[in-house]
Design a protein that fits this description.
This protein has 192 residues and is of the alpha/beta class. It has a single domain (2-180), classed as Flavin prenyltransferase-like (Rossmann fold), CATH 3.40.50. Strands 1, 2, 3, 4, 5, 6 and 7 form a seven-stranded mixed sheet that branches. It has eight helices and seven strands.
């Protein structure tokens, strides 16, 4: 197993959580230390896709450690240099906007800010219904930022949801390895 310490953060794209958990399992199979982080919304919201309690327990079971689920718990990630890479999977349009604007009002955005201060990579696996509309400018801004990398993404339903973009979650481990080497996994845009 590889020794780099990976943070794995969940945001509220609830319909993609099952695929994100699979990506977490793939990352945990490769890296010894995986620190789970969940947004406050994920930690408290039950949906038709599952309960918050079940998600938290599953993530903690896979990582064999408690989740970071508050701004206060996430803040030490920077000063203590707790991570070598941070994955945000899934990353919602709302979180994309906050990252692009430098807003730090959730456990996930605090984890990213704290981690980026050390010049270390953040890997974004986006899942947003407005990726080719309102969130497009934020994707562009983040593509241009140092130490921000994307899991390859594309339209998940071009006819039914023409502005929706979702990362290929099966590529999360590859994207993490590339980011640790200072590289963006290519191609960034993938077809479905």
């Amino acid at each position: 197993m590889e020794q780099q310490r990976v943070g794995f953060a969940f945001c509220g794209s609830f319909c993609t959580h099952a695929r994100a958990v699979e990506a977490l399992e793939q990352v945990k199979a490769r890296y010894e230390t995986v620190v789970p982080i969940v947004s406050e919304r994920c930690a408290a919201t039950d949906t038709r896709f599952g309960t918050a309690h079940d998600l938290m327990r599953e993530v903690e079971r896979i990582c064999d450690r408690r989740v970071i689920d508050t701004v206060e718990k996430a803040e030490p990630i920077g000063p203590k240099k707790l991570l070598d890479v941070l994955v945000i999977c899934p990353c919602t349009g709302n979180t994309l906007a906050k990252l692009a604007a430098g807003a730090t009002d959730s456990s996930v955005t605090m984890a990213a800010k704290a981690h980026l201060r050390n010049g270390r990579p953040v890997v974004i696996a986006l899942a947003t219904n407005d990726g080719l509309s309102a969130s497009a400018k934020n994707i562009g801004a983040l593509l241009d930022k140092r130490n921000i990398y994307f899991v390859p993404f594309g339209q998940d339903d071009p006819v039914g949801k023409p502005t929706s973009l979702v990362a290929d979650f099966s590529k999360v481990p590859e994207a993490v390895a590339a980011a640790l080497a200072g590289q963006q996994l290519q191609p960034v845009l993938v077809g479905r």
